[in-house]
Specification:
3 helices; mainly alpha; elongated; Mobile element protein
Length: about 70
């Protein structure tokens, strides 16, 4: 009983910390969890210029275009 209360308070503190960092958890089973920083890929200056002109770079594959928000202002 005491162990459960300690664990509950620890998980509550952990969840509060995650929420302060902008991460939210859902109920489920935790099997293995890791937090990694994913590298951010940016468009090159040339790609940005083409996009501003309304053109898409020729070498962009259909799959890459699906991941890009080409309609954003």
């Amino acid at each position: 009983m005491i162990i459960n209360n300690v664990l509950d308070s620890r998980f509550a503190a952990f969840n509060n910390r995650l929420e302060k960092e902008g991460m939210y958890t859902k109920k489920g089973s935790m099997v293995d969890a890791s937090f990694l920083t994913a590298p951010r890929q940016r468009n090159s200056r040339e790609e940005n210029e083409q996009l501003k002109e309304g053109d898409l770079p020729e070498y962009w594959s259909l799959n890459k275009m699906r991941h890009k928000d080409t309609d954003a202002d």
